[in-house]
Amino acid sequence: MHEYQAPLADMKFVLRELVDLELLAQLPGFSDMTLDVADAVLEEAAKFAGQVLSPLNRSGDLEGARWQEGQVLTAGGWKQAYTRFTADGWGALSCPAQFGGQNLPRVLSALIEEMWNGANVAFALCPMLTRGAIDAIELCGSEALKERYLSKMVSGEWTGTMNLTEPQAGSDLSAVRTQAVPTGDGRYRIKGQKIFITYGDHDLAGNIVHMVLARVSGAPEGVKGMSLFVVPKFLVNADGSPGARNDVHCLSIEHKLGIHASPTCVLAYGENGGALAELIGEENRGLEYMFIMMNAARYSVGVEGVGISERAYQTALAYARERIQSTEAGVRGGARVPIVRHPDVRRMLLLMKSQTEAMRALSIVVAVSLDAARLHPCAEERDRHQAVADVMIPVIKGWCTENSVDIASLGVQVHGGVGFVEETGAAQYLRDARITPIYEGTTGIQANDLIGRKLARDGGRAAQAIIVQMRALGRDLNAEPNLPALAPAFLAAVDALERAIAYVVENYATDIAAVSVGAVPMLKLFGIVAGGWQLLRSALISRQRLAQAKGNGADAGFYEAKIMTARFYADHVLSQASGLAHSIVHGAAGALAQGVL
Questions:
Q1: What is the pLDDT of residues 15-50, one digit of tens each?
Q2: So which residues are the catalytic ones?
Q3: Regarding beta strands 179-182 and 188-198, do their DSSP bridges make them parallel or antiparallel, or are they unpaired?
Q4: Which of 13, 31, 486, 522 is the most exposed place for a label (fewest CB within 10 A)?
Q5: Which residues contact 216 (CB under 8 A, 6 or more apart)?
Q6: What per-residue confidence (pLDDT) applies to 223?
Q7: What is the DSSP letter of 161?
Q8: For residue 321, which phi and psi values (nearest 5 degrees)?
């Protein structure tokens, strides 16, 4: 079976050529982050991903996590890998230095997250959720909570979870019923049940710190009555060590389509009097605080989609190069050739490659805004970057994950019949990918967030600022004589995006149902054009490097491949933009007609 190899050449290209390194260097704490440092970190992470995590991907899928007499046991090799992961400091890359983190930019940690997900997405979920819990405590918790939990969580000695939904609630958090009863000493007792809790219990770490949404007695109904609590699996002693077992227990783990080695738990709180908990921030502001974790998780799940897509592409490409079948098209009596030389196989592989590279570039460029929104010394710049991040996070989450399902499915198709057989590994990527457009908010939820909160609410201003940058690239492409086909295709796609945004802004308040029919097509359109923006930037830069005679030897081949990958994307992916815009503007009548369903 083909093991994962981190796409270091493309990752380094994105970091060197597409990321605003000058801006990053201006942000507090990042002045020492040189390209040499970044390269060294990426190369070491690539070794860990390929040599430690990737070999566990298949065995973890086969063995899975196990529930045994109330305990959750991870697959063979998981504990050893996690111990090495934490010892090497991989979970602490972008965490604050004051709690033992390495304070590296989100840009760099996101590239490394992609490696973890490409190598072994079931393993990568644990540190991803811990990172979100760290964010919530750091930004909203008291000094006592930070002191008690953060250094252990940053080191990976303890892990974190996010506990939102319940059996009766699903994605409707207003229906959450878990109760929090004050104890009189500043703490609370939690009673209720949570479902679909990823890594809600396991044997990897000494403690698990749950972030739990619950209602304090007498709180308002609906989402306004939600509060957020820290509930450790083991209570914490005065010296910081884990103490007595808290009243939270795993009742079962789910038997899932994919990510078998990641335990998805049903957790019961308060079966023996109530789980002791501490409030984060203020009562009834829990949803606000939880969205700190949620937005971090949504971005990270988008990166999951990139990683799975890369893994599926690598496996399909390796198979296509090895599999000998049929003669080449148009060659009578020729020898049988590797299927990578057949036109339709090439089309499928290039759909996989071009979209994966577009997703990688977009997610990493947006990571710059995540860093700048948090750290830029100028408030106006922080606000500007936050507006970019707010628009793009639902796009990255929804578009990258939906693409990962399609790309993994193409990987099965490239393999043909053997792709449907588990031993090739291609089927696992499809099974693992299928959850990504669902958890942390389905694609429909992301799309409704995009059209409502991110486009209609501000009149499309943040999106228009992005379109201004896209049109500037269009002008640069027009001025480059060696890229004749790219500018018209890109600008036509930008026109389609702008037309669709205008429709959403103009009609959302008066006909929300009609606009909502086009919400998911709007998200897909935005992703296709924004990904194309970055991929065509890559092509323009690659052409410039070739013209400057910097692209010699192997570099020349890399740059030329970048240009042709962008050309393929323009012809096969950007060309979908006008059709999507049509469905957004005109698609409501058929969908909402009475008697159709």
A1: 999 999 999 999 999 988 899 999 999 999 999 999
A2: 440
A3: antiparallel
A4: 31
A5: 179, 180, 181, 182, 188, 225, 227, 283, 284
A6: 85
A7: E
A8: -75, -25
Query: Is the pLDDT reported for residue 586 higher than 90?
Result: yes
Calpha distance 187→185 (Å, rounded): 6
Q: How far is CA 358 from the centre of its chain?
A: 14
CA 220 to chain centre: 33
Tell me the sheet residues that pair with 163: 212
Cα 559 from Cα 336, distance rounded (Å): 30
SS3 letters for 125-188? Answer: HHHHHHHHHHHHHHHHCCHHHHHHHHHHHHHCCEEEEEECCCCCCCCCHHHCCCEEEECCCCCE
CA–CA dist 138, 4 (Å, integer):
34
Residue appearing with tokens 């057949």: 342
- Residue 324 tokens read as 């000998």
Q: Does the predicted model carry a pTM greater than 0.90?
A: yes
* CA–centroid distance for 475 within its chain: 31
How many other C-beta atoms are found inside a 10 Å radius of the C-beta of residue 488? 13
Q: Which amino acid is at 287?
A: L
Share of the chain above pLDDT 90, in %: 89
User: H/E element holding 393?
Assistant: helix 379-415
pLDDT of residue 478: 95
Pull the structure tokens for residue 246.
């808290």
- Predicted local confidence at residue 308, as pLDDT: 98
Among 216, 328, 234, smallest CA distance to 280 is for: 216
What pLDDT is attached to residue 551? 54
Instruction: Determine contact, residues 232/208, Cβ cutoff 8 Å.
Output: yes
Task: Tell me the C-alpha distance between 115 and 93, whole Å.
Answer: 14
The burial of 554, by beta-carbon neighbours within 10 Å (0-12 exposed, 13-18 middle, 19 or more buried), is given as exposed
Architecture of domain 158-285: Beta Barrel (2.40)
Tell me how many degrees the CA angle 375-380-385 measures, rounded to the nearest 5: 60
For the chain, domain boundaries:
158-285, 459-591
pLDDT of residue 347 exceeding 70: yes
Q: What dihedral do alpha carbons 577, 580, 586, 591 form, nearest 10°?
A: 180
**DSSP at 259:** -
What is the CA 266 to chain-centroid distance, rounded? 24
Q: What is the pLDDT of residue 135?
A: 92
- Residue whose C-alpha is closest to residue 527's, from 456, 453, 580: 580
445-497 per-position pLDDT tens digit:
999 999 999 999 999 999 999 999 999 999 999 999 999 889 999 999 999 99
pLDDT digits (tens, 9 = 90+) for 512-568: 999 999 999 999 999 999 999 999 999 999 999 998 876 566 689 999 999 999 999
